[in-house]
Amino acid sequence: MTTAMPFDQLQPMPEDWQRALAVVAHPDDLEYGCAAAVAGWTDAGREVTYVLASRGEAGIDTLEPAKCGPLREQEQRASAAVVGVAEVEFLDHRDGVIEYGPALRRDIAAAIRRHRPELVITLNHRDTWGTSVWNTPDHLAVGRATLDAAGDAGNRWIFPELAEQGLAPWDGVRWVAVSGTTSPTHAVDARPGLERSVLSLLEHRAYIEALTDEDPEQYCRGFLTANVEANAQRFGGIPAVAFEVFHR
Ligand SMILES: [Zn+2]
What we know:
The protein is of the alpha/beta class. It contains eight helices and ten strands. The chain has a single domain (14-247), classed as LmbE-like (Rossmann fold), CATH 3.40.50.10320. The chain starts with 10 loop residues before the first strand and ends with a strand. It binds zinc ion.
């Protein structure tokens, strides 16, 4: 009989930071994964900013992109406000065909230099969700480019045009934390922010109503609760938002 923690327990997320920048491909990417953690961080007086590579304009089958983009932008701003995030930026890459490459890395590096975060958050950059659900090319592109841009932001020679625009190098990113991967290493207690994370996801109402016939609030609560409870057994029984943390 032992009281030691099992070896596969998730570590608590680092807490000695003040600014985080979350970079994802689409409106709703943060709300499906880690908004409960964001709510807890902003409660503690930390600044969190969202950067979205696209406006998610290809996300609703029944709505053409020219109308869908502005609607989803509006929904994203509302959902960010629910968890204490005041600033949301859009990089205007084209939804569905976001390309991994220097242009995306440069845009993300520029955002990192503007906001000077210690912690960068992104979404699953790996091929699958769990073991057998194929991830989308936009998530792979943005996740990988964000991991790379954390380094690019600190190197004055990789994108010299950024310095010419007045964006000085920022080598202060200490961690990149990836939400939704199959191999998490760290976690955050989801309980204080869970209810707001439900309301935050619910702000993507047009998207959710097109996605499911279920009652939207029931759908959001069910999805997010199951998600954080699944991590509890690896975090001392506490419902948690999990991240795979890369140190820099
Ligand atoms: Zn997405």
